[in-house]
Specification:
Layout lengths: L10 H7 L3 E5 L2 E5 L7 E3 L8 H13 L6 E6 L2 E6 L2 E6 L5 H16 L7
Antiparallel strand pairs: 1-2, 2-3, 4-5, 5-6
């Protein structure tokens, strides 16, 4: 099944990649590191559509230690993710730099978990 990527609509994939777990409290869905919910985010308010929330995701991609060397390059309204020197994902058609980075990291995360079939 192909996942549709939309700005702000794939935050659950990012949250999972960042180590957060889904929880439900009453009728509200939250993501947090544990049940204590010291840092809990309602699903609709996960911080990945802002630079302060997205840059740690970029850093985690680059810091992965799974035998590959991943690199993220961001410039103008473009984002390219490399494995070693090979281009894995290149997003160049978004209106803002933030959206380009968001789409690229979501594609990477889907690939990383084996859910992105186009690479």
């Amino acid at each position: 099944m192909k996942t549709k990527i939309e700005f702000g609509k794939n935050n659950d994939f990012i949250a999972n990649f960042m180590g957060l777990k889904p929880h439900t409290f009453g009728e509200t869905d939250f993501w947090s590191e544990d049940w204590a919910m010291a840092r809990a985010y309602p699903t609709e308010k996960l911080p990945y559509t802002e630079w302060n929330g997205l840059i740690p995701v970029v850093e985690k991609v680059e810091d992965l230690d799974d035998g590959n060397l991943f690199r993220v390059e961001i410039f103008k309204n473009k984002c390219i993710i490399f494995r070693e020197d090979e281009v894995m994902f290149e997003v160049t058609d978004k209106p803002t730099k933030l959206e380009a980075v968001y789409y690229a990291v979501v594609m990477f995360i889907l690939w990383y978990y084996g859910e992105f079939s186009e690479y």
